[in-house]
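User: Show me a protein chain along with its predicted structure.
Assistant: Here is one chain, sequence first, then structure tokens.
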Amino acid sequence: MENYTKYKLKSSDELASVLNGKDNLFVIACNKCFKEFETVEEPDCDEFLKFAEEQGKTVTGSAKVDFLCNKMHTERKLQDLIPEGTENVVVISCGLGIQTVADLAGKPVVAASNTLNYRGHHGMALTKKSCDACAQCYLNITGGVCPIVDCSKSLVNGQCGGAKNGKCEVDPNKDCAWEKIYQRLAKQGRLEEFLHCIIRFRRSSPKIQKNIGFQQQSGRRVKQKQRNYYMS
């Protein structure tokens, strides 16, 4: 039987980075679409809890929920689940589950995992595609709104400027993803955090990931192994 893994926990360095300045964490993990079929309990949640303790973080609680991407099911589960005093909700799942919790939690969501590339559909969210499974998750930066899928141009460094009345210039029937990102970050008081965040250049193919080394520098400068490119 094929391994059904659809996400993996971020590396220790990545986790330390995304947790920097964050505390009072509630951890929620998807209890499906993980590891091998023989595993009956999501294994990464306990690993993360151990890491958070080592980092001196306060954890207000944790839960494992089947199919976080099922919005109706997750909404019922989240009622009265997140304790008072929780400042950030850590989610361990694929991008579908992270976005679902971000829509419902009413608090900043920390994506502790990256979605793996997969074939076909996955999960229970049999609606529109909302995760590109790029394994380079931007949801921590964008308040749980995926700029790769939700933005018609897949922009990762801000709005293109072509939106009108909150609608996308490519598809007037579609809300501008970056308008949604701005509104959510503003509601959570995180605009300054975003403005001072270095946006990682997206690696779009395995060949690029293998052959090009990226180094984040000030502003939007991206250094390649052999040449330097400057993003406008």
